[in-house]
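We examine the record.
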Amino acid sequence: MRRVLPLLLAALLTGCASHQKKPLDKETEKEVASLGQMAVKKLMGELKSNLGTALKEGGFPKAIEFCSGKAEELTEKVNKELAVVKVKRVSDKFRNPKNRPDELDQEVINEFKEELKEGKLSPYKVKKFDGYFVYYKPILVSPFCLNCHGKPESMNPEVLNAIREKYPNDRALNYRAGQLRGVFKVVIPEGEVKGG
């Protein structure tokens, strides 16, 4: 059954289901946000720790090697530990095709981008499908991120070559600090939420 659940979630979230437009009650939204934040914190902790180790071992080229070879494995490991709740990263300018957004993801990414333009970015968004909640947290580009996601002409050529080698169809360049890089996405079955 545990192997079937991720497949069902993937099928559900590919854009065929429509989400509800009516707002959630505050208590349910708070509970979903708490579960979402817990999952994001767990994944972020794993990724940052391992990325830091890769940087110490071999700088940004080693970090790119980590991202291309181990980030997905770590995400899967975290999801196994979380059991029912599933977390991943999604971007409309993805580097790894596994991080491609579905229709709802793209809608939420666009909402966050509009908010950024207006100077009032929400800390998260919660959407609801039939039987599922989806929690989204924005990922913003920091100056540090520009080492691997900035303008190619400003990047270290060795880093740029490593990116092009590992990601020949890369879309994740030409960012500026403060822009939306993507989102963390957490899928939570309705049964996991008391107020659901």
In short: The first helix runs from residue 4 to 12. The two ends are 23 Å apart (CA to CA). The chain is about 50% helix and 15% strand.
